[in-house]
Design brief:
Elements (H helix, E strand, L loop, with lengths): L5 H8 L6 H9 L5 E3 L6 H14 L5 E4 L19 H15 L4 E5 L12 H21 L3 E6 L8 H11 L6 E4 L7 H16 L6 E5 L24 E2 L6 E3 L24 H9 L2
Parallel strand pairs: 1-2, 2-3, 3-4, 4-5, 5-6, 6-8
Antiparallel strand pairs: 7-8
């Protein structure tokens, strides 16, 4: 577990709250990915500290790089990212150098390939160039990291189209792709979707490993991706058992998807104990 996760920090600050014990037991003591974006003033130093702390604890760190220019072009609740391609290249290079020659799992740019549906052809070309740069930096500067480029989810990116997007972005040079990040689709359906993507990649001469975000898929998908009710925590993080490399908690349970659903006034990225308890109880 990360003692500085949003859930762990909330529990420490609110030990007397009746929700604290439930959140501590079910979320704060689970390993959850650490998201890095433009909100870190020195991403290199921050990544270095995080990976160092994981190594000292004998744990495998899971990091999310989330700062592409024009981020979340379709959903817009998490819009932002670096201001220019040049700034992004510098940022991801610092990120990769900080991981260095240490084991890690890196989830690269959630939304990036699903979002191409909302970009112009010129924007898609620019984004692919940035993703290829990120992949090359992580391959060369963080050789022991297992990097997974985000590939949407069961309802976002048909297998043939997503395989082509992954290929164009350079997935062949890293471990593979990530599915269901911040979403709710069941693991079995997600694995089946991954196998279809790999069948398409095989036509190009290779297949890729993949990971599944199980943080909130315990009750499956109910037609909404934004703070829907009656969802539940999924399988705790562990090595995969049905073809996936890992089942990970990429999304932090309790972090709002945006001002919508069961949290109409809560901005994306904001931690809510009420959202966390809903996922624990399935309410």
């Amino acid at each position: 577990m990360d003692p500085n996760s949003e859930a762990a920090k909330w529990v420490r600050a609110n030990a007397g709250d009746p929700r604290a014990a439930k959140i501590r037991e079910n979320i704060a003591t689970r390993p959850v990915a650490k998201w890095f974006g433009e909100w870190f003033t020195d991403v290199g130093a921050s990544v270095d500290r995080y990976v160092d702390a994981a190594a000292a604890a004998g744990k495998l760190p899971v990091l999310v790089a989330y700062t592409l220019p024009g981020r979340d072009a379709c959903g817009e609740h998490s819009a932002g990212g670096q201001k220019s391609p040049a700034e992004y290249r510098a940022w991801i290079s610092a990120f990769a150098r900080a991981v260095g020659d240490r084991p890690a799992v890196v989830i690269l740019e959630p939304d990036s390939l699903g979002d191409v549906e909302c970009l112009s052809a010129a924007q898609v070309a620019e984004r692919n160039g940035l993703l290829r740069h990120a992949i090359a930096e992580l391959r060369d500067r963080a050789p022991r990291a297992r990097t997974y480029l985000d590939a949407g989810n069961v309802n976002w990116g048909a297998p043939a189209a997503m395989a082509q997007r992954l290929h164009d972005a350079g997935v062949r040079d890293i471990r593979g792709f990530a599915l269901n990040v911040s979403n709710f689709h069941p693991t079995a359906a997600t694995v089946a979707h991954a196998e279809k993507i790999n069948a398409q990649l095989k036509l190009k001469g290779y297949t890729a490993g993949f990971v599944v975000d199980t943080s909130r898929n315990g009750n499956g998908h109910a037609g909404s991706w934004c703070n829907p009710p009656k969802r539940k925590l999924g399988t705790p993080p562990q090595r995969g058992t049905t073809g996936e490399d890992y089942r990970l908690w990429v999304k932090t349970p309790g972090i709002s998807d945006g001002p919508c659903g069961t949290a109409p006034g809560l901005a994306s990225g904001t931690y809510s104990p009420d959202l966390a308890v809903r996922l624990i109880d399935g309410s």
